[in-house]
Design a protein that fits this description.
The protein has 251 residues and is of the alpha/beta class. Helices cover 47% and strands 23% of the residues. The chain has helices at residues 18-32, 36-44, 47-59, 76-85, 98-110, 149-159, 177-199, 202-214, 218-228; strands at residues 8-11, 14-17, 66-70, 90-95, 117-121, 134-140, 160-171, 231-238, 243-249. The protein is globular, with a radius of gyration of 17 Å.
Length: 251
């Protein structure tokens, strides 16, 4: 069932009007953008780099390809894709949040990555790109913040070329009870305190923890991708399922 049929939706554990969520999410990421990379390293103990590296390796990106790094934020994946697709390829870093996009642009330009990367402020639910345009789309830790996830997945399918691949890297559901208990303790007790200490913003990190819990689990997200029209959909759990990488193809 589409998540866009109701007028209300979830913002973390709160129920809000659907047309208010995008602005509320924007407020979170405006707040954390400047220290987003630092918090990623601290919160995940650096493990997010391993998750992203596996995503890159699973993409099959090659010279000359067009890649969309959706909800690409500060550009970790874009930087890697830029090297892989080379001068003949193109990477589009897209994010709905202009603060995150600005941080990503400055970070990549500081690294000297300028020639084959462009930047677009875009809503995942209605991507402003032509049909059959990209060889690869990645969305890393962004789908859970989208109001209508079904619409976003359909939009990604539309702009993928036939034979193209979608990779969704997202927090998911741990497989074992002990890990779930440890993860809950860390997410709700420790992570907001770290957010308060480093960014002076505990509320945003409480939202992030809640948004993870409200995100569809592995099998549900797989079903959403299949319903949207993706084929050969599968996923790989990492760190006991705290994070999962979903893959699907357009044929």
């Amino acid at each position: 069932m589409s998540q866009g049929t109701d007028k209300s939706t979830h913002f973390g554990y709160k129920t809000v009007e659907a047309d208010q969520k995008a602005d509320m999410v924007a407020g979170v990421f405006h707040s954390v953008a400047a220290k987003y990379d630092i918090m990623n390293d601290v919160m995940s103990f650096g493990i997010h780099r391993m998750w992203k590296r596996f995503t890159i390796e699973s993409s099959g990106a090659r010279p000359g390809m067009k890649v969309l790094d959706l909800a690409g934020g500060t550009g970790d994946l874009t930087a890697k894709f830029s090297h892989l697709v080379g001068e003949r390829g193109q990477v589009t870093l897209a994010d709905i949040n202009d603060s995150m996009l600005k941080v990503g642009r400055e970070k990549l330009r500081d690294k000297g990555i300028v020639g084959n990367v462009n930047y677009v402020q875009a809503n995942a639910e209605a991507l402003p790109f032509p049909d059959n345009h990209f060889d690869i789309i990645t969305i890393a830790f962004g789908l859970r913040n989208v109001t209508d996830k079904d619409a976003a997945i359909r939009s990604m399918l539309r702009v993928l070329k036939p034979g193209g691949k979608l990779l969704i890297l997202e927090f998911s559901k741990p497989k074992h009870d002990l890990m779930r208990k440890i993860y809950d303790l860390y997410s709700f007790k420790i992570m907001p305190k770290m957010g308060a200490l480093i960014t002076q913003d505990a509320d945003s990190y409480e939202y992030l923890a809640e948004s993870i819990r409200m995100h569809p689990d592995q099998e549900t997200l797989k079903g959403m991708m299949v319903e949207a029209g993706f084929e050969q959909v599968d996923y790989t759990n990492m760190t006991d399922g705290i994070v999962a990488l979903h893959k699907g193809y357009k044929f």
